[in-house]
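Allow me, if you will, to draw on your knowledge of protein folds for a short while. The matter concerns a single protein, recorded as an amino acid sequence and a row of C-alpha coordinates. Kindly check, if you would, that the fold set down in the C-alpha coordinates agrees with what the sequence suggests. You will find the record immediately after this paragraph.
***
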Amino acid sequence: MTKRVLPVPDKFASCPNEGSVLSYFEGQFESVYVLLSPFMRSTSIPMDRFCPEKWPTKQELIDGTESVTWEQVLSLTGLKSIDEIDIGLRTSIGGLNKKFSNEELSKTLCQLVETENIIHPQEGDVSPLIENRLYDSLQHIGQDWLWVGDEFCSERKLKWIDDLKKGDEIPCHGCVFTPDKSILITSDWDSHFSFLCSSKSTIDQILDHQDFEGFFCTPETDVYWSVAAARD
Protein backbone atom coordinates (compact mmCIF):
# COMPACT_ATOMS: atom_id res chain seq x y z
CA MET A 1 0.00 0.00 0.00
CA THR A 2 1.42 3.37 -1.04
CA LYS A 3 1.82 5.87 1.79
CA ARG A 4 -0.12 9.06 1.20
CA VAL A 5 2.07 12.15 1.39
CA LEU A 6 0.63 15.62 1.01
CA PRO A 7 2.26 17.74 -1.69
CA VAL A 8 4.29 20.79 -0.74
CA PRO A 9 1.77 23.55 0.10
CA ASP A 10 1.45 26.54 -2.21
CA LYS A 11 3.12 29.55 -0.63
CA PHE A 12 0.38 31.85 -1.89
CA ALA A 13 -2.17 29.85 0.12
CA SER A 14 -0.39 28.53 3.21
CA CYS A 15 1.24 29.53 6.49
CA PRO A 16 4.64 28.84 8.05
CA ASN A 17 4.52 27.08 11.43
CA GLU A 18 8.10 27.77 12.44
CA GLY A 19 11.23 29.59 11.34
CA SER A 20 11.71 32.84 9.46
CA VAL A 21 8.46 34.24 8.07
CA LEU A 22 10.05 36.10 5.15
CA SER A 23 12.22 33.11 4.24
CA TYR A 24 9.12 30.93 4.00
CA PHE A 25 7.41 33.33 1.61
CA GLU A 26 10.54 34.17 -0.37
CA GLY A 27 9.85 34.25 -4.10
CA GLN A 28 6.10 34.70 -3.51
CA PHE A 29 5.61 37.76 -1.33
CA GLU A 30 7.91 40.72 -0.83
CA SER A 31 6.51 41.79 2.52
CA VAL A 32 4.57 40.38 5.48
CA TYR A 33 2.68 42.34 8.15
CA VAL A 34 1.79 40.75 11.49
CA LEU A 35 -1.87 41.54 12.21
CA LEU A 36 -2.32 41.38 15.99
CA SER A 37 -5.73 39.93 16.88
CA PRO A 38 -7.46 42.35 19.26
CA PHE A 39 -8.66 41.35 22.68
CA MET A 40 -12.42 41.71 23.15
CA ARG A 41 -14.42 43.50 25.82
CA SER A 42 -18.01 42.33 26.09
CA THR A 43 -20.59 45.08 25.76
CA SER A 44 -23.73 42.93 25.64
CA ILE A 45 -22.77 39.25 25.49
CA PRO A 46 -23.02 37.33 28.81
CA MET A 47 -19.56 36.26 29.94
CA ASP A 48 -20.63 32.62 30.24
CA ARG A 49 -20.98 32.56 26.44
CA PHE A 50 -17.22 32.76 26.05
CA CYS A 51 -16.58 29.04 26.24
CA PRO A 52 -16.12 26.48 23.44
CA GLU A 53 -19.66 25.11 23.72
CA LYS A 54 -21.36 28.52 23.52
CA TRP A 55 -18.82 30.65 21.67
CA PRO A 56 -20.54 33.61 19.94
CA THR A 57 -20.78 33.80 16.17
CA LYS A 58 -18.77 36.27 14.14
CA GLN A 59 -21.71 38.67 13.87
CA GLU A 60 -22.49 38.38 17.58
CA LEU A 61 -18.89 39.31 18.38
CA ILE A 62 -19.00 42.27 16.00
CA ASP A 63 -22.26 43.51 17.55
CA GLY A 64 -21.62 42.59 21.18
CA THR A 65 -17.95 43.32 21.85
CA GLU A 66 -15.46 46.11 21.35
CA SER A 67 -11.82 45.77 20.35
CA VAL A 68 -9.10 46.16 22.95
CA THR A 69 -5.67 46.70 21.43
CA TRP A 70 -2.47 45.09 22.64
CA GLU A 71 -1.26 48.61 23.42
CA GLN A 72 -4.25 49.07 25.73
CA VAL A 73 -3.54 45.70 27.37
CA LEU A 74 0.00 46.88 28.11
CA SER A 75 -1.45 49.92 29.86
CA LEU A 76 -4.00 47.87 31.82
CA THR A 77 -1.58 45.17 32.94
CA GLY A 78 1.75 46.91 33.27
CA LEU A 79 3.40 44.35 31.01
CA LYS A 80 6.50 45.66 29.26
CA SER A 81 6.00 44.68 25.61
CA ILE A 82 3.84 42.88 23.09
CA ASP A 83 6.42 40.08 23.32
CA GLU A 84 5.25 39.47 26.88
CA ILE A 85 1.61 39.52 25.77
CA ASP A 86 2.33 36.96 23.07
CA ILE A 87 4.22 34.67 25.46
CA GLY A 88 1.42 35.00 28.01
CA LEU A 89 -1.23 34.13 25.43
CA ARG A 90 0.73 31.17 24.08
CA THR A 91 1.37 29.92 27.62
CA SER A 92 -2.36 30.10 28.43
CA ILE A 93 -3.18 27.62 25.63
CA GLY A 94 -0.22 25.33 26.30
CA GLY A 95 1.36 26.44 23.03
CA LEU A 96 4.94 26.78 24.27
CA ASN A 97 7.66 24.46 25.43
CA LYS A 98 7.95 24.72 29.22
CA LYS A 99 11.36 26.37 29.02
CA PHE A 100 9.81 29.27 27.08
CA SER A 101 6.41 29.50 28.80
CA ASN A 102 5.68 32.02 31.55
CA GLU A 103 2.82 31.31 33.92
CA GLU A 104 3.04 34.73 35.57
CA LEU A 105 2.43 36.46 32.24
CA SER A 106 -0.44 34.11 31.53
CA LYS A 107 -1.99 34.76 34.96
CA THR A 108 -1.73 38.53 34.44
CA LEU A 109 -3.63 38.30 31.15
CA CYS A 110 -6.25 35.94 32.59
CA GLN A 111 -7.03 38.45 35.34
CA LEU A 112 -8.37 40.80 32.63
CA VAL A 113 -11.44 38.58 32.36
CA GLU A 114 -12.33 39.12 36.02
CA THR A 115 -11.37 42.79 36.31
CA GLU A 116 -12.24 44.22 32.89
CA ASN A 117 -14.53 41.70 31.12
CA ILE A 118 -11.77 41.38 28.52
CA ILE A 119 -11.55 38.11 26.60
CA HIS A 120 -8.43 36.79 24.93
CA PRO A 121 -8.29 36.61 21.14
CA GLN A 122 -8.72 33.12 19.70
CA GLU A 123 -5.61 31.40 18.43
CA GLY A 124 -5.22 30.21 14.85
CA ASP A 125 -8.00 32.32 13.36
CA VAL A 126 -8.43 35.62 11.58
CA SER A 127 -10.06 37.75 14.27
CA PRO A 128 -13.78 38.40 13.62
CA LEU A 129 -13.19 41.97 14.80
CA ILE A 130 -10.78 42.71 11.94
CA GLU A 131 -12.06 40.30 9.27
CA ASN A 132 -14.64 42.60 7.67
CA ARG A 133 -12.30 45.56 7.95
CA LEU A 134 -9.76 43.59 5.94
CA TYR A 135 -12.43 42.89 3.33
CA ASP A 136 -13.22 46.60 3.15
CA SER A 137 -9.55 47.37 2.56
CA LEU A 138 -9.27 44.74 -0.17
CA GLN A 139 -12.30 46.14 -1.93
CA HIS A 140 -10.83 49.63 -1.58
CA ILE A 141 -7.79 48.58 -3.61
CA GLY A 142 -9.89 46.88 -6.28
CA GLN A 143 -10.33 43.26 -5.15
CA ASP A 144 -13.83 41.74 -5.39
CA TRP A 145 -13.23 37.99 -5.02
CA LEU A 146 -11.27 35.80 -2.61
CA TRP A 147 -10.36 32.15 -2.51
CA VAL A 148 -11.13 30.67 0.93
CA GLY A 149 -9.05 27.65 1.87
CA ASP A 150 -8.63 25.22 4.73
CA GLU A 151 -5.43 25.05 6.78
CA PHE A 152 -3.57 23.10 4.09
CA CYS A 153 -5.53 24.81 1.30
CA SER A 154 -6.32 21.39 -0.14
CA GLU A 155 -9.93 22.59 -0.40
CA ARG A 156 -10.72 26.02 -1.82
CA LYS A 157 -13.87 27.95 -2.63
CA LEU A 158 -14.10 31.19 -4.59
CA LYS A 159 -16.21 33.78 -2.76
CA TRP A 160 -17.57 37.26 -3.53
CA ILE A 161 -16.20 39.56 -0.81
CA ASP A 162 -19.59 41.08 0.04
CA ASP A 163 -20.88 37.56 0.74
CA LEU A 164 -17.91 36.88 3.03
CA LYS A 165 -18.78 39.94 5.08
CA LYS A 166 -22.22 38.53 5.85
CA GLY A 167 -21.09 35.09 6.93
CA ASP A 168 -18.45 33.18 8.86
CA GLU A 169 -16.69 31.41 6.02
CA ILE A 170 -13.02 31.12 6.96
CA PRO A 171 -12.43 27.68 8.51
CA CYS A 172 -10.37 27.24 11.65
CA HIS A 173 -6.70 27.82 10.77
CA GLY A 174 -7.81 28.70 7.24
CA CYS A 175 -6.64 31.35 4.81
CA VAL A 176 -7.92 33.70 2.13
CA PHE A 177 -6.06 34.83 -0.97
CA THR A 178 -6.80 36.88 -4.04
CA PRO A 179 -7.35 35.22 -7.44
CA ASP A 180 -4.21 36.89 -8.80
CA LYS A 181 -2.24 35.40 -5.88
CA SER A 182 -0.93 38.84 -4.92
CA ILE A 183 -2.41 38.97 -1.39
CA LEU A 184 -2.69 36.31 1.32
CA ILE A 185 -4.16 36.47 4.83
CA THR A 186 -3.31 33.39 6.89
CA SER A 187 -2.99 32.26 10.52
CA ASP A 188 -0.75 29.76 12.30
CA TRP A 189 -2.29 27.21 14.67
CA ASP A 190 -1.13 28.54 18.06
CA SER A 191 -0.73 32.21 17.17
CA HIS A 192 -2.96 35.07 18.26
CA PHE A 193 -2.25 37.02 15.10
CA SER A 194 -2.46 36.62 11.34
CA PHE A 195 -0.04 37.28 8.50
CA LEU A 196 -0.93 39.78 5.76
CA CYS A 197 1.31 38.97 2.81
CA SER A 198 1.79 41.01 -0.37
CA SER A 199 4.05 43.70 -1.81
CA LYS A 200 5.13 46.48 0.56
CA SER A 201 3.21 49.06 -1.49
CA THR A 202 -0.02 47.02 -1.39
CA ILE A 203 0.21 46.47 2.36
CA ASP A 204 0.85 50.19 2.82
CA GLN A 205 -2.34 50.90 0.86
CA ILE A 206 -4.31 48.54 3.10
CA LEU A 207 -2.87 50.10 6.26
CA ASP A 208 -3.61 53.60 4.96
CA HIS A 209 -7.25 52.58 4.56
CA GLN A 210 -7.58 50.77 7.90
CA ASP A 211 -5.39 51.16 10.96
CA PHE A 212 -4.50 47.58 11.89
CA GLU A 213 -2.35 47.04 14.96
CA GLY A 214 0.80 45.09 14.17
CA PHE A 215 4.26 45.31 12.63
CA PHE A 216 6.21 44.44 9.49
CA CYS A 217 8.38 41.35 9.51
CA THR A 218 12.13 41.76 9.13
CA PRO A 219 14.43 38.98 7.88
CA GLU A 220 14.91 38.04 11.56
CA THR A 221 11.19 37.77 12.41
CA ASP A 222 10.35 34.21 13.41
CA VAL A 223 6.86 32.69 13.63
CA TYR A 224 7.61 32.56 17.37
CA TRP A 225 8.93 36.13 17.34
CA SER A 226 8.20 36.80 21.02
CA VAL A 227 10.20 33.79 22.17
CA ALA A 228 13.10 34.77 19.91
CA ALA A 229 13.07 38.28 21.39
CA ALA A 230 12.98 36.97 24.97
CA ARG A 231 15.85 34.60 24.19
CA ASP A 232 18.12 37.36 22.83
The beta strands are 31-36, 39-42, 65-68, 118-119, 145-149, 156-160, 175-177, 184-186, 193-198, 214-216. The chain has two domains: 11-36+125-227, 39-119.
